[in-house]
């Protein structure tokens, strides 16, 4: 009876190529990367989905958005992802030089735990020969905390594949007439788009490309749409920025790459233009810092540094997007932690009430024994 | 396919909204569940469909269709479904038009010429479908028309494009095609071009599905409000007389679940009752 051919075979599922620093989403099976801020990852539903564009609308001084961009890039260094940094306002090299250093758990503690001698199992001895459980099979932790007082070590930076992009200033002003380039994109955007495209082709980041060692490309664009990129308010509406974002999105959809773009949308005169830009991107969040505003002194906000508004969450491979408990979010910056927290608790209106019904609760001012002057 | 929406819109696999031009208008929230619904409706009816993806990729539609129980892959293999990846095309055109080498290329500009090309692509796709499938009913769907506007195509061209498509797909109420377009409008801001587009589209449509968020803000249990407006034209009711234009409006609130959509009358969410 023991025939060699049996229909019972161990099902070995074809594993998706494991890339360090990524994990599949529980929601829609999309591959995610960390934004470098774990609480931000949670807000997005686990992380930033590969192939999508995230837009951060800058706070007025642009300091917090720049910090978030740095976290995103620092995460690339730790996960050994490839990166492309673009900025017109500052030197992109400056941006990577200032990356914050990671807070690593003391390796000595781990070593003592996993020491072989004192780890003999007395009761569950059968499990002794089992391999140690590893939470992340790729060996790289998903998401880190960073210490703003330290800098990313030079060795790690050296080991990372970084490409810089800086649009030449003279090109931004070469246009003689604003409407002269109808259907043509502004040269600074066009050049960045070409740089992204060629980088994806060169580094085999495209989904079509066959390669053994897959890696993720992280694109960080600082202050896109600022006057340094050549963006200016002209009488008629200029679609260059939307064209760029749309083309970027189309390119990323078929590649192992993500992009975080910060944009000073408060500089745009026309809110309709901002809405268009938001509509073209996949995920949109807005930072609204309290610096210089009345809210700085408001006691309700004293713990926080600004409001964190989620404008848009992507719907990918699913009917629904990630559901947030509340959209009332705020961020705060500690020396070693940048976190996004709930500003208020949402009203209790869910299908099932979270708390038990307190039927025997006594109404205020109506106790039976008159001990308080206010009672009646 | 979400039976509750079928009941609400008074359509089902045996009486498809043929000869109609449907505008899905989303304000402040996502209305794409209606597109998935209509797609699966035509898929269940074993009809032809042509989907133009400007905002989303085919993989997205495939995954969602698998979830709601109407496999797009099988449909596509049977030759009755065509997907036109406009997202990729527009992206490529944008990149190519920026490079200095292809200045002389007339086709590769994001302009009226692209819409013309897209029209002929859709037309040939429909012809191909009707050759394959026996049924002549066809659904033509464009997933986000506003994107076309945003990438710099003039609003008038987009309106003309939809008019052309309408003539192609459902010229009369008795024709066997259905055209569905999605537009995104933000009511809080005045976007002139977008307002013109939405107004024109609604004017020439037979059914407007207006999806909007709640005025009171975000809620976990009620995702928004769906308002349907039937614009029955007079000629259909009374070919001879001066029947007044009937416009019937109904409103429901909805909650989108993982694989289903719940509809309920305003204020009767399970969380409130």
UniProtKB/TrEMBL annotation, chain A:
Residues 366-376 have a biased composition (Polar residues). One of its GO terms (cellular component) is transcription elongation factor complex. Its main location: cytoplasm. The keyword tRNA processing applies. Pathway: tRNA modification; 5-methoxycarbonylmethyl-2-thiouridine-tRNA biosynthesis. Keywords: Cytoplasm, Nucleus, tRNA processing. It comes from the Eukaryota. Residues 349-376 are annotated as: Disordered. It is found in: Cytoplasm; Nucleus. InterPro entries: Elongator_complex_protein_4, P-loop_NTPase. One of its GO terms (biological process) is tRNA wobble uridine modification. Belongs to the ELP4 family. This is Elongator complex protein 4. It comes from Ridgeia piscesae.
From TrEMBL, chain B:
It comes from the Eukaryota. One of its GO terms (cellular component) is elongator holoenzyme complex. GO terms for biological process: tRNA wobble uridine modification. PANTHER family: ELONGATOR COMPLEX PROTEIN 6 (PTHR16184:SF6). The lineage of its organism: Eukaryota, Metazoa, Spiralia, Lophotrochozoa, Annelida. This is Elongator complex protein 6. Belongs to the ELP6 family. Pathway: tRNA modification; 5-methoxycarbonylmethyl-2-thiouridine-tRNA biosynthesis. InterPro entries: ELP6, P-loop_NTPase.
């Amino acid at each position: 009876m023991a025939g060699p051919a049996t229909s019972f075979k161990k099902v070995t599922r074809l594993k998706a190529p494991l890339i360090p620093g990524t994990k599949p989403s529980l929601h829609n099976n999309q591959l995610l990367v960390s934004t470098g801020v774990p609480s931000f990852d949670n807000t997005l539903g686990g992380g930033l989905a590969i192939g999508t564009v995230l837009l951060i609308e800058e706070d007025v001084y642009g300091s917090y958005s720049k910090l978030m961009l740095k976290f995103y890039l620092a995460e690339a260094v730790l996960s050994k992802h490839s990166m492309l940094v673009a900025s017109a306002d500052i030197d992109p090299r400056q941006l990577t030089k200032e990356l914050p250093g990671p807070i690593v758990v003391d390796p000595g503690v781990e070593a003592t735990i996993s020491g072989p001698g004192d780890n003999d199992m007395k009761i569950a001895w059968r499990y002794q020969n089992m391999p140690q459980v590893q939470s992340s099979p790729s060996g790289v932790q998903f998401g880190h905390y960073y210490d703003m007082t330290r800098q990313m070590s030079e060795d790690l930076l050296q080991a990372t594949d970084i490409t810089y992009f800086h649009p030449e200033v003279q090109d931004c002003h070469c246009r003689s007439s604003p409407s002269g380039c109808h259907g043509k994109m502004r040269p600074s955007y066009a050049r960045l788009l070409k740089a992204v495209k060629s980088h994806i082709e060169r580094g085999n980041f495209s989904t079509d490309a066959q390669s053994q060692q897959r890696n993720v490309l992280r694109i960080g664009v600082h202050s896109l749409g600022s006057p340094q990129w050549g963006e200016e308010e002209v009488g008629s509406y200029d679609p260059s920025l939307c064209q760029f974002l749309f083309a970027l999105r189309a390119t990323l959809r078929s590649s192992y790459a993500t992009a975080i773009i910060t944009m000073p949308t408060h500089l745009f005169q026309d809110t309709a233009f901002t809405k268009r830009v938001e509509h073209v991107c996949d995920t949109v969040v807005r930072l609204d810092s309290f610096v210089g505003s009345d809210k700085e002194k408001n006691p309700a906000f004293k713990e926080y540094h600004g409001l964190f508004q989620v404008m848009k969450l992507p719907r990918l491979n699913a009917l629904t997007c990630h559901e947030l408990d509340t959209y009332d979010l705020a961020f705060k910056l500690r020396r070693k932690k940048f976190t996004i927290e709930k500003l208020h608790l949402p009203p209790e209106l869910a299908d099932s009430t979270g708390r038990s019904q307190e039927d025997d609760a006594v109404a205020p001012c109506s106790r039976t024994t008159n001990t308080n002057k206010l009672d009646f | 396919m979400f039976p509750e929406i079928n009941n609400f819109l008074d359509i089902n696999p045996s009486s498809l909204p043929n000869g109609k031009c449907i505008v899905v208008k989303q304000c402040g929230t996502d209305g794409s569940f209606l597109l998935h619904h209509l797609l699966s409706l035509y898929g269940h009816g074993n009809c032809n469909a042509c989907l133009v993806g400007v905002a989303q990729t085919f993989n997205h539609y495939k995954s969602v269709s698998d979830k709601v129980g109407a496999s797009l892959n099988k449909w596509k293999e049977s030759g009755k479904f065509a997907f036109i990846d406009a997202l990729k095309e527009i992206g490529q055109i944008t990149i190519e038009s920026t490079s200095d080498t292809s200045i002389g290329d007339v086709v590769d500009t994001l302009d009226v010429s692209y819409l013309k090309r897209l029209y002929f692509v859709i037309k040939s796709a429909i012809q191909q479908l009707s050759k394959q499938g026996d049924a002549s009913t066809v659904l033509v769907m464009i997933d986000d028309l506003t994107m076309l506007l945003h990438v710099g195509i003039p609003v008038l061209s987009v309106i003309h494009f939809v008019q052309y498509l309408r003539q192609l797909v459902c010229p009369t109420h008795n024709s066997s095609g259905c055209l569905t377009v999605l537009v995104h409008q933000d009511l809080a801001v005045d976007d002139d071009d977008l307002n013109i587009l939405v107004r024109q589209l609604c004017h020439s449509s037979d059914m407007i599905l207006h999806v909007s968020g709640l005025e009171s803000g975000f809620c976990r249990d009620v995702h928004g409000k769906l308002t349907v407006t039937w614009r029955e034209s007079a000629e259909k009711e009374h070919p001879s007389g001066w029947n007044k234009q009937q416009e019937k409006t109904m409103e429901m609130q909805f909650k989108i679940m993982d694989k289903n959509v719940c509809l309920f009358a305003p204020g009767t969410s399970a969380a409130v009752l």
